[in-house]
Amino acid sequence: MDVKIEPSWNTVLKSEFEKPYFIGLLNFVEEEYEKHTCYPPVNQLFSAFDYTPFKEVKVVIIGQDPYHGAGQAHGLCFSVEDGIRHPPSLNNIFKELQADEGVSIPSSGNLQRWASQGVLLLNATLTVRANQAGSHQKKGWEQFTGAVISKISKEREGVVFLLWGGYAKKKGAIIDTKKHEVLTSGHPSPLSANRGYWFGNKHFSETNKHLIANKKTKIDW
User: Fold this and answer.
1) What's the average model confidence in pLDDT over 120-145?
2) Catalytic residue check, 65
C-alpha cells in the first residue's frame, strides 16, 4: 500500500514512513480494506494532510476514530460529505459555534472550508472497519498521529490545539505549551455535552483571539 500524501507532509514525515511499525500498519490496513468494508475510502485516507499543508497549520482539532457508517467518513475528523446528515457530535459543534460566534448552522457538514484555512482535522486513528467503532485502534495509527502532533509542536509556533474529551486531552502531553495554545473541554458528543462539559467553551472565538495575538489570520468558521 503506497502512502500518497501532500508533498510538505511527505517531507516532514518521511522518517516515520520508513519505521517498522508504520510498514506493519500499512500492511494491516491494506489487508483490512481487501477483506472488509472500511472507511474512509482509501483515496481519502490522508485528506486532513492534503487540505492543510504543514506550513499552513494554524489550528489542530483532534478526533478519535473516523465515522463508521456508510458515506460519512472522508478523512477529516468530525466532518461528513455534502448531503450526509450531521452526526450528533458535529451537530453540537455547530450549536456551540452558533452560540459563540453567531454562525448559522450550515446545511452541509463538510468541514473542508475549515481545513483549507489551516485547521488540521486529525483523527488519532485514521481508518475503521464498517460499523465497528475502534476496530483499528492500537494497530499503529496512534503512534503515527502522535508523531504528527509532535512535529507540529517542535517545528511550528503559535498553533492553537483544540482538545475535546479525555482521549484528545491525553495528546496534550506532547504539546509544548510555551510555544502553542492548548484549549480543552469535554467532547461534543451528546453524552458529554448534555452533562455540561461542552457547551459554553467558546473555543471558536478563543481560537481567533490567539491567532490574532500571534499576527495570524483568523478562521472564518
Assistant:
1) 96
2) yes
